[in-house]
Every structure is written in C-alpha cells, then in structure tokens.
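Cross-posted from the bioinformatics board.
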Amino acid sequence: MGQKNSEQTDEEIARLVQSGDIDLFGILVKRYEEKIKRYGRKFLSNFQDIEDIVQEIFIKAYKNIRSFDVRKKFPPWIYRIAHNEFVNAIRKESKSPLSFFDPDTLFPHPVSKENTDKQIGKEEFEQAINKCLDRLDPKYREPIVLYFFEDLSYKEIAEILHIPIGTVSVRLKRGKKIIRSIYQKSDYQI
Amino acid sequence: MNENQKKSSFSERVLKRIKSEKVKMRPRIYFVLRGVFIALSIVFVAFFILYLVSFIFFIFRISGIWYLPRLGLPGFGMLFVSSPWILILIAMLLIVILEILVKRFSFAYRRPILYSILVIIVIIFLGSFIIVKTPLHSGFFWKARENQLPVIGTFYRQYEMPGPSDAHRGIISEITDEGFCIEQPNGQAIDVIIVSDTRLPGNEEFNEGDAVIVLGKQINETIKASGIIKADSEFKEFIRYRGPRPLRPIPSR
C-alpha cells in the first residue's frame, strides 16, 4: 500500500480521503508538513507555537477536504488554508489588526517576468531576506516567502492570497525594494 | 529521531487527534449549500440596490431636482444640497457589501477591485434606468398616496417633496403680463414674475398647462423668478394630483 500511495498524486489521494479513507490523509500531512511549517516560520517569524498552528491547519484541511475540487491542483488549496490560519494568528497577536482593504488590489498593475528575478543573485537575496524578513510588513513578507522559499508561481500565489497576479508582482517588487533598503542601512551589500 | 520518524510522529499526532476528537469531514452538500447561500445573498443585495437606486432616480424626477442642472452651476449646487444623501449613502454601502460578496469568487478576486466595482456600477445604473422607465415606482407611488401600500408606502410619501425650499413646482394656470400663475400640488396659486435676469434654459415659451419648476424666494404669493425650467409630461402627472391616481384614457379602437 505504501509503495502504491507514494506514486499517487496529491489530488488522487485527496479524492480517496474524500471517499472516507482517513489514514491516507496522513500521507498528505507528511508531504506538506515541512513546507507549511517553513512557510509559517518565515511568515510568522515572531511566533513560538508554529507547530500548534500547523496542526490546526491540517485539522481544518481534513474537515474541509470535500470542498477541494480534485480537478485542480492541491498545493494552492492547502496553502490557502494555511494563509487564512496564519493571518488569523497575526490578527490575534497584533495590536493593529491587518486591514481588510489593500489599495494595491484596487488598480491593475503590469506583471513582471517571473524567472529573471529568481535567478539573478538568488542566494544572496535569500540571505538578505532571512535577515530582514521580520522587519517587513506581512503583506510584502508573505508573497516573498511563497515565491522565494516555497517556489510557487505568481499565479499560484495569486490563488492562495485571492489577489490579482499584477498585485503579486507589485508586492514582490516593493518587498524586494524594502529589503534592499533595510539591508543597505545595515551596511550590508547585495 | 530521524527526519522520517519526526514526520511520522507529526502526521500520527494529526491522525490521532482526528480520530480521538472525532473530527468529521464536512459533507459536500454543506459546501454546495454555502455556495448557493452566497449566490442568493449576491442576487438579493443586487436586486435591493437596483430597487434603491431606481427609487433615487424616481424621486429625483418627481421632486423636480432632476431638472435643476439645466440652470448651470446654481442648479448643480441645488441638486447637491437637495439630493437624498441618506439613501445614496445606503446604496454606496450596499455596493461595498456586494463587492465583498462577489470577491469570494475567482472571476472577481483575480481582477483588480476597480474592474468589479465598475462592472457593478454600470449594471446597477443601466438596470435602474430601465426600472425607472417601467411603471413599478409610479405604481407604488400612487398606491402610497392612496394609503394602500404598507411599509414602503411611507418612503414614497416622505420623499415626494424633498426639493429645495426655493424651488417651486406647479402647472401654469394663467399667463399674465409679468409672467404667469402656477398652481402648486397643494392647490396654492402663486404669481411668477419673469425679469430680465431670470434664467430660461432653452428660451422656451410657456403656455397654460405646462409643468414648471420655478426658482426664487416666495414673498406672500409672489415669486420673482431667478430661473424657470419646463418639465416633461410625466413630471406634470405627479405634481398635478394630490389625490388618487388619475384615470388613464381608454385607448381608442
């Protein structure tokens, strides 16, 4: 069973879980545990109880698995649940709650090419991100984490955050600019 | 503990929690019904906005403030002052609620808010223009006057005459040497004096039976008009009768 299941796609396993095979849900948990924990650690850099939140994410995913459309990709669906839980955690902790309205989503923005900025100085930039991430506004921090650490595309990030692709592009651009300025003020060079 | 054991223990903990707390998967019907509920909420809010905005257009017409911009800048000022702002603010708030509901669907959140808001506003305005051309509001209006419309009848009666205090609506009953005499909806007659600086958009001629909106301060039973606008026949029907709905002529065969 183990061999067979390891060859199955996330979507096929999700379909079997939907029809009542609870134990197969464990495979999905194993596949996404590290990814979601890494996403949480980077996005909620000041939080201690990431593991509890991640456990809650998988419980919610199990409860709502029948809302997953097996014809679509599984990662954006599970990351969307994780996003909601992480945002809720930030709202609970933060004295100034996250705003419902974001002016970046109001107007159309041009979408920059994806791969170029990933390749140029990727390693150095990731180091810079690691040092400055906790000083970045969550609305810029999240797309940066999803793009640089989770290797998701603009389209997938847009689906997870429920925002237009142009907004993803603009947030990444601004986030990188802020990181550069924080980094330069700290007398580092990237 | 190696990486695989760690992973197993976490996934086992999750599965153990699911089993021990008897966590249940929500049935598919739950998500279907939730989708239906959101869709119905969107339809309900959209229809309510259509009704409200078309009602605003309707009271703009029957109160005469629709015609005020014809007098240029002062007319726009009066239009601004006498607009039913509470209703307009409620309509704007409902449009925001509609936008929030619509944003739950991928066709909306994949695009900038500006696009979905513009689409909503265009649909609401076009729909309201169509509704205001139908007998819906005029039918309710006459029923409200006859006290045959419960609940919303109050709205129609309340907003019947919200026009500015210096705007007087009436029908020309007599042409005089200095101007004309109008009969207001409450039956009161007023003499209107036209002077050289009276604004007359379109330089229209006035005849007995014309529906007009006269701007100017009323002193006793006379108004020295600062502006006069001739209105259309539909407006005339609303200001002529204070009583029941007029009988419509039987079409000749």
